[in-house]
Amino acid sequence: MSSAMPQPETTPILACTVSRDVQNFDLLIEDMEAAMGENWGDLGFAEALAFFGQPDAEALEFIALAIDSSDEDNLVLMGEIITQAKSRGIKVILIAEDVTPASLHQLLRKGADEFVPYPLPERELQSAIDRLSEPEPQPEQTHHSTAHLNKGASREGALIVVHGLAGGTGATTMAVNMAWELANIGGEEAPRVCLMDFDMQYGSVSTYLDLPRRDAVFEMLSETANMDEEVFGQALLSFENKLQVLTAPSDMVPLDIITPEDISRVIEMARAHFDYVVVDMPKTLVQWSETVLQAAHVYFAMIELDMRSAQNALRMKRALQSEDLPFNKLRFALNKAPKFTDLSGKSRVKRMGESLGISIDLQLPDGGKQVTQGADHGLPLASSAPKNPLRREIAKLAQSLHELGRNDAKAA
Q: What UniProt keywords are attached to this protein's entry (predicted)?
């Protein structure tokens, strides 16, 4: 390993680890040697602030700030290191072990460019270094998305939320296809629709529409207090020039890194610029779930005709009612519902609703393999299988929601 204050005339220093004691991060030492050879050094926290101002630091490309739970009492110092590095054009990779989400959030807000958990996954440090060297992508659709915000226009878009109460209940399929059907109603005067993936860890809206995940999403979510139309627009991607999409972040992040205030600001910004905002929720209840529930105009809870869905629906009911939250906002949607001629299945649906004390308001047919195939190809059902029974039902639902919205607007 290089010395703490290496001599640039013999070995140009391109990177430094910054930590209380780098020996606590032996895997980081190995990965830095593999990635940087002899072109790196090691600094303590106080040394780093002094070193940034020296001529030796001019060639520095990035620092790897390594912290653990013992360093959480010094977050102000950590933040100052990040701020000073960024002010000199030095990138920051945050390496963290056993650090609370709140602390991570605070440091990421200070401007850390990459976050890698410790122990380091294989080749993850090298991948982070590679991402630092890549220019920020500026696809044409980014500018198109910003233009599509229709700056200056004031709207009060309807918030439609889809929440799967168990894995595989079709929540993302519902959200993606609902948003696409709404975006295609009315021809030239089609409503403006934004689809947002709030499943920060396993969200797959980007996969269903074959869109890239971009770092701008997490940057926007981490700085919502400073978010404006431009920042929000640049985080969106356009799908076939009709649907604006906020994908899940490119990296898996803790769900509670995002606060209720962050989510509220994003929802308000989206509603101000779109007629319909469709949200795909994570299955997990988090601190901002109440924020979305309270703001929703329609909240679809996706279930199937099985025991796990019944148990989870009951648990959801108890959780909301115990906190005096508006459980009656939930509209239970049964995916893969029995066919009209399946009298036994119809009877089971009725018994399920009665035993849980819920109303199953929507029954969606089984779309079969075409649903999976369409998702794998990154296409909505309207494009991949327009005659699919599930697509037809979602299209009818979208039309009825749109007509309801128009009638309410006229009444207002």
A: ATP-binding, Nucleotide-binding
Measure the CA–CA gap between 1 and 408, rounded to whole angstroms: 69
CB within 8 Å of 53: residues ≥ 6 apart: none
Q: Which residues have CB under 8 Å from 301's CB, separation 6+?
A: 163, 165, 313, 316, 330, 331, 332, 333
Chain Cα centroid distance, residue 93 = 21
Element (H, E) at 197: strand 193-197
Cis peptide before 119 (omega within 30 of 0): yes
pLDDT for residue 177 is more than 90: yes
Instruction: Name beta bridge partners: 276.
Output: 158, 193
CA 228 – CA 220 distance, rounded (Å): 9
136-175 pLDDT, tens digit per residue, is 555 444 444 455 565 555 568 999 999 999 989 999 999 9
d(CA 27, CA 119): 7
- Count other C-beta atoms under 10 Å from residue 58's C-beta: 13
The 3-class SS string of 369-386 reads HHHHHHHHCCCCHHHHCC
Residue 250: other Cβ atoms inside 10 A: 15
Output the CA–CA distances (angstroms, integers) from residue 207 to 164, 183, 184, 248, 298, in the order listed.
Answer: 17, 19, 20, 10, 25
The H or E element containing residue 116 is: strand 114-117
- R_g of the chain computed on alpha carbons: 25
Half-sphere exposure of 46 (CA within 13 A, CB side): 0
Give the confidence band of 10 by pLDDT, cuts at 50, 70, 90.
Answer: low
Length of the chain: 412
d(CA 19, CA 43): 7
Q: What is the DSSP string of 284-331?
A: S--TTHHHHHHH-SEEEEEE-SSHHHHHHHHHHHHHHHHTT--GGGEE
Angle between the 45-52 and 75-87 helix axes, to the nearest 10 degrees? Answer: 20
Q: Determine the Cα angle at 261 with ends 213 and 202, to 5°.
A: 30
Quick one: pLDDT band at residue 407, thresholds 50, 70, 90? low
